[in-house]
Design brief:
4-stranded parallel sheet, 4 strands, globular, alpha/beta
Length: about 250
């Protein structure tokens, strides 16, 4: 389900059933001449779409902007260095509005800078603010309340910051999923999620490829599909009772 398409009665039902919420977090950032400027957001959104196809979750509109520090390119290339201050205010308000609706379990799928980068830290802070506001509504000595008296199931995990492979099992695999900026990892994920968006021929116009594109020609669509499925399977297993049994994949 996608929040922007849901009617009020569907939202109320999702809240009653405590459905998980998937929130893609990305950036508008230069990733090389071959990739779209919204690569980080597109990957997070694409994975959320795949997860939604196999589990009952509510996908909410993405946070598409993040600080980039113009690390890979400048404004002339479309790169937007969105301020941390502005993002923090927006993220805080977004999470408070989602919790006001009644959503209790918000999974922020981080597509930019990983779990220790600015967007992830900002999302954690937004979650802590939501926790503090909820706790304040319980009055003094709320630790004496029984868990069933809490307005949310897990007061300290309203927002969970996640990598793409947050719940995936690497047992038996020889290495971890490649992700590096604009290179093989992100290129093949875009290949797997969006037909026709990657234009490898555009790289021919780039002289002296930066180090972060050193492995770009190793990108393989089939390998990208493997890792997409690998990540999606992890989330579907984690969501357990919310999984759509009839459409579960066994390809991992």
């Amino acid at each position: 389900m996608y929040l922007k398409y849901m009617r009020p009665e569907e939202i109320k039902d999702a809240v009653i059933r405590k459905l998980p919420v998937m929130l893609p977090v990305g950036a508008v950032e230069y990733h090389g001449e071959h990739l779209p400027i919204g690569t980080d957001t597109l990957i997070a959104e694409g994975l959320c779409k795949k997860i939604e196809e196999r589990a009952e979750v509510v996908v909410v509109p993405a946070l598409p902007f993040s600080p980039t520090m113009h690390w890979a390119g400048g404004a002339a290339s479309g790169d937007m260095d969105f301020s941390e201050r502005a993002l923090a205010v927006y993220a805080e308000e977004y999470i408070l509005q989602l919790t006001a609706i009644g959503f209790q379990r918000i999974y922020a799928l981080i597509g930019h800078q990983g779990k220790e980068g600015a967007p992830a830290l900002i999302m954690r802070r937004a979650g802590r603010i939501a926790t503090a506001k909820t706790a304040a509504s319980l009055g003094d000595g709320w630790s004496r309340l029984k868990p069933e008296q809490w307005p949310v199931e897990d007061l300290f995990s309203i927002v969970r910051v996640c990598d793409y492979d947050e719940f995936s099992d690497y047992s038996g695999l020889g290495g971890r999923m490649p992700v590096g900026h604009g290179g093989r990892g992100e290129t093949q994920l875009i290949m797997a999620l969006y037909d026709g968006l990657v234009k490898m021929g555009a790289l021919k116009g780039m002289e002296n490829l930066p180090e972060w594109l050193a492995d770009v020609y190793e990108a393989d669509k089939a390998d990208g599909r493997f890792w997409v499925e690998f990540c999606v399977n992890g989330f579907v297993r984690h969501f357990g009772p919310y999984a759509r049994v009839e459409s579960q994949s066994t390809s991992e």
